Amino acid sequence: MWRRSLGSDPPLPAAVVARSEAFGYSCEVSGLIVALLLPGCTAEVAEVVSVEGDSAVPGLAEPSVLIPDAGENGPYACAAPLGTPLDGGFTQAVAADLDTLLLGQPDVPLRTHMVLGADAAHEMFFVWQTRAETLGGRAQLGFAEDGLSWTIPGVSYPVGGYRIHVARACGLTADRSWRYRVGSDNGWSEVGSFTTAPEAGVDLPVRFAVLGDTRNGAATFASLFADIEAAGVDYVAFTGDAVANGTNWAEWEQWFDAGGSSFLHVPFLFAPGNHEANDVYYFALFPSHTGVGHQAVDAGPIHWAVVNDNATAGVTVPSEAAWLAADLAQATAPWVVPAWHKPAVAACSPHGEDVNNRTYLLPVVDAAPSVRLVVNGHNHNYERSLPYRGGEVVDGGIVHLTSGGGGAPLYTGSYGYDYSALQVKTQHWVLLEADARSLTATAYDLAGNTVDSFTLTR
Ligand SMILES: [Fe+2]
After folding, report:
1. Any idea what the Cα angle at residue 204 is, between residues 450 and 366, rounded to 5°?
2. CB 439 within 8 A of CB 336
3. Which of 90, 140, 187, 242 has the most CB within a 10 Å radius?
């Protein structure tokens, strides 16, 4: 299923846009005189264009939600907190744009990406990076066939000499193609796109890409992600360990740069790995509604129960199991798919089975008959178990899928456990397609060859 619709760019809302090649950015300002005062715009103004647009005045506070021509079902900023331990450090983003502009800091957003909220049919996080001086930011979005009709104010957080901005949109219309951009009067991102998931109970398919453990393999990750975007997936479920050292901002930059503009078009579901280290960068870049990295996400026929299995930052392993049990008890989607980083059922050495997760999380999923598939990373290979439940290979058991071949050095050994159906030591990604009746997983290597494919039915 490929439901995304791109079309032509929407009209920009600024009054005057001056572009400069000298500093590698665009300066978007409210008048030509101001443009000529800005570094990089002084002698290199290559183009000045006037466009029709809104009359927002830089420096004046915007209303908390700007909804021109919005119907009763228009998007709005979520009332709930962002859901991150960093909430207390976020700065409400309102009227700092003009001050920054006059200081000569035109600032085009970098590393723009999206993160799924709890309800992929109606909610989306938009996340981007600016210089530290740009305090304000917002997302503008609209239906793909229309302009950017709605504005969602963001909040921002100072991280490593930069600033991470997050805007959280609720009230989106299900099963629609959307376009958006993020930024401020200091500069705007390229226009991105996404598709909201079908309404719960509506039997339409969704397509996820699953991969993880990219770490320092930027070239491999870039190649795999190009294939993922070309395949037209709706979303990416990342199994953790994006970087080797989550405390090193330079590695995050490399990871985002490897994804490039593709990240503008494919929202993420992100299960944090041990290498993310529960660091401030992870929590800033991948907000979750639970505040500790656990995420219960409904996306059409799939309910994802993502556990942050890194027992720090106030999260203990028993508390992970308790959260998972409570979530699985209320999940009603056709496919209930728990996901976490370190597998409880895997024969790949050296990591093999994670003792904590086998002790605490495995009994929880085994006790949930609705669970037929568990997704993990951490082991740098592709592995699929036979249907397994209660320590045995049984009909109706759970297939444990490991996808940890996103670019990190491959693991080549095996413990040879009988429950392991297939281990392939290759870099890969997995296409997960599901409707209400079937779920098919197909793994592809770097050359596009099929590594494995299996289908579950209900
Ligand atoms: Fe790991």
Report:
1. 70
2. no
3. 242
Distance 122 CA to ligand 1 centre (A): 31
Per-residue pLDDT reduced to its tens digit, 92-132: 544 444 455 555 568 899 999 999 999 999 999 999 999 88
- From 212, 188, 175, select the one nearest 339 (Cα to Cα): 212
Tell which residue, 125, 428, 122, 138, has the closest CA to residue 285: 125
Is position 46 within any domain?
Answer: yes
What is the DSSP code (8-state) at residue 57?
P
DSSP 169-237: EE-PPTT-EEEEEEEETTEEPPPEEEEPPPPTT----EEEEEE---TT-HHHHHHHHHHHHHTT-SEEE
DSSP-derived 3-state class of residue 78: coil
The CA 280 to ligand 1 mean position distance, Å, reads 18
> Residue 397's domain is classified under what CATH number?
3.60.21.10
448: tokens are 């596009």
Among 195, 215, 233, the domain-final residue is: 195
- CA 413 to ligand 1 center in whole angstroms: 16
What's the 237 CA to ligand 1 centre distance in angstroms? 15
The pLDDT score that the predictor gives to residue 89 is 54
In the chain, what is the straight-line distance between the N-terminal and C-terminal CA atoms, in Å?
20
Spacing, Cα 244 to ligand 1 middle (Å): 9
> Which token pair is 287?
């907000």
Structural domain includes residue 2: no
State which amino acid sits at residue 392. Answer: E
Distance CA 265, CA 111 (A): 12
Ion ligand 1: residue ranges with CB closer than 5 A: 241, 273-274, 378
- The whole-model pTM stands at 0.82
Contacts of 162 (CB under 8 A, 6+ apart): 129, 130, 131, 132, 249
CA separation for the pair 299, 307 (Å, rounded): 17
Query: Which two tokens mark 204?
Result: 């339409």
The Å distance, Cα 363 to ligand 1 centre, comes to 21
Radius of gyration of the chain (CA): 22
Q: Mean of the per-residue pLDDT values for the chain?
A: 81
Q: Distance (Å, rounded) from C-alpha 158 to C-alpha 131? A: 9
- Residue 200: inside a domain: no
CA of 357 to the centre of ligand 1 (A): 13
Question: What are the tokens at 17?
Answer: 């846009």
For residues 180 and 259, state if they share a domain: no
